[in-house]
């Protein structure tokens, strides 16, 4: 049996660049991999949750054969919406991600925005205020510096819009809890993970694609292989 394609979906403020090491490792294992760029990230507020979900669905629809989709952080919401009703998606992976239900939005889930968010409602953007500890607490100084250079503002609408569909109700899912995460505390992750079909753990902070790319790629490869044989 051929290996499934893997679609990687980044979180808020990030881009496809954050998956580079993981994508290479998965491709070295023989998996076809696509990293999706979400339009809700950028200096101009041109995207929202719906457009991000469409970007995910467009990438999926262009693939023949089984697909496993992995969403990180906010990307989990775009994945939840974008994969709903997709017949050849055989597995979902939530990487320290928001695994929400219909009617919920990221802002409704977090309640009070953390202090490292800087919301500019007049510009319809959310920028970051010294997020190094929250996002990259277990990364090297060099990894943190390189990542910080590439972060972009996030469209406020991506956080405000509620989910209309929840694909994890129909598609087998795995939640990867990052046990050293300081952006989404592990206890909150575990509460969301209770909805998943399977739960795994990584000894990592919020950005394991930078700090633990080998371990993360191995886990994603295992989950993708399992998804096609279940």
UniProtKB/TrEMBL annotation:
Keyword Hydrolase: yes
Residue ranges of every copy of the AB hydrolase-1 domain listed in the record: 6-218
Gene3D superfamilies: alpha/beta hydrolase
Entry keyword set: Hydrolase
Gene Ontology molecular function: any one: hydrolase activity
PANTHER family the record matches: AB HYDROLASE-1 DOMAIN-CONTAINING PROTEIN-RELATED, ESTERASE_LIPASE_THIOESTERASE DOMAIN-CONTAINING PROTEIN
Protein's UniProt name: Alpha/beta hydrolase
Organism whose genome encodes this protein: Pendulispora brunnea
């Amino acid at each position: 049996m051929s290996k499934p394609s893997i679609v990687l979906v980044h979180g808020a403020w990030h881009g496809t660049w954050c998956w580079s090491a993981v994508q290479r490792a998965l491709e070295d294992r023989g998996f076809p991999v696509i990293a999706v760029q979400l339009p809700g990230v950028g200096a101009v507020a041109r995207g929202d949750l719906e457009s991000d979900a469409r970007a995910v669905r467009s990438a999926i629809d262009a693939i023949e054969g089984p697909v496993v989709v992995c969403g990180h952080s906010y990307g989990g919401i775009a994945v939840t919406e974008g994969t709903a009703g997709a017949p050849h998606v055989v597995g979902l992976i939530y990487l320290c991600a928001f695994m929400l239900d219909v009617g919920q939005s990221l802002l409704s889930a977090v309640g009070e925005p953390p202090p490292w968010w800087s919301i500019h409602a007049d510009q319809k953007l959310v920028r970051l205020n010294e997020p190094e500890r929250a996002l990259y607490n277990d990364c090297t100084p060099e990894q943190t510096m390189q990542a910080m250079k590439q972060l972009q503002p996030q469209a406020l609408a991506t956080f405000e819009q509620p989910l209309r569909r929840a694909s994890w109700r129909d598609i087998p899912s795995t939640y990867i809890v990052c046990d050293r995460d300081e952006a989404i505390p592990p206890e909150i992750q575990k509460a969301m993970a209770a909805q998943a079909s399977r739960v795994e753990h990584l000894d990592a902070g919020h950005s394991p694609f930078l700090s633990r790319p080998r371990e993360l790629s191995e886990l994603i490869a295992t989950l993708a292989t399992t998804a096609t044989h279940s």
